[in-house]
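Two proteins were folded this term; both appear here.
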Amino acid sequence: MNITFNVALGRTAYYASLPAASDGLVMVPLEAAGLVDDATMRDYDDLQALLAGASNEQTGMGRKPLTGVTATVDDTNDRVNLDAADVTWTAATGAPIGAVVICYDPDTTGGTDADLIPLTKHDVSMTPDGSDFTLTISDFARATSTA
């Protein structure tokens, strides 16, 4: 299941389209063991709080910056589709992953996990075995109006 974090509701498209010089979106893999349920996950307001809970970052694969991020207005379906280039981990190792979280990083040149705002969480089941792993991204989020 995919979720949008409460703190990011209404802001995901904005963060994805920011043209700041040193900001960006980053994908953080989470270990399968210890993942909290979606109802708990969506209440975290920053990555530091998320990782202070029962969920753990899978550090063997590492974080990946998202590239080729686009925000496309879809007037036919009354939404904005957010997409990015696929992400590849070379010679992936470490514990099995159960999800990835896409975060907005306001300063990719420094800062802490407390600065990273979690936007979306995506269930991913993968056990690293030393081979390359590519995660295909297709519209990682859609923002719609509820009015």
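Next, the second protein.
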Amino acid sequence: MKLQLQKVLLATMAGVSLLSGCAPLVVGGAVVGGMVAVDRRTSGTQLEDEAIELKVANAVSKELGERVHLNVTSYNRRVLLTGEVRNDADRSRATLLAQSQENVKDVVNDLAIGASSSLSQRTKDTVTTGQVKAAFVDAKDLQASAVKVVTERGIVYLMGRVTAREAQRATDIARGISGVAKVVRVFEDISEEELKRLSQPPLSR
């Protein structure tokens, strides 16, 4: 029990989005369970994703202000918007603002229309993210660092560049976590051949 709790805490610290609703800034290279996570994005793309998260969050906050509780996650220039807005017009506007930012390739808007989630719900979401990450670390047939996890109102969003096999495995694991209401896949599909290429260690000189 203690070991499992330690894994959840490690996974939570490795990349859980902030409870305040600000754009999450944790990217590849985090230490999870004693292993250095290897990101399937280039270092340049990781930096771009960080910048995109900040730019989108700032643009939406500047225009919509307190009318939106927004979480922005960018992976390989695909932007995921989660949280809550007051009406459909604000939801559509958030999409346009995100799409207008430099280097954004695609926007997945899953903002719910309604009141902002409570602090207790956001705390539960943080714990759920940590549990999913810990379960990925435990799985021997899944590279945990390849999947980015975001949780909002009990809905788990999975992002990353993965094969169909990895996508299904990650989905099955997330669905098995207590408290998960639904799993939404925001994956970029790659072939098994591409995975092999990405998994090869860099050539030493």
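Residues 59 and 97 are 7 Å apart (CA to CA). Strands lie at 31-32, 35-36, 68-75, 78-85, 106-109, 112-113, 148-152, 155-162, 182-189. These notes refer to the second protein only.
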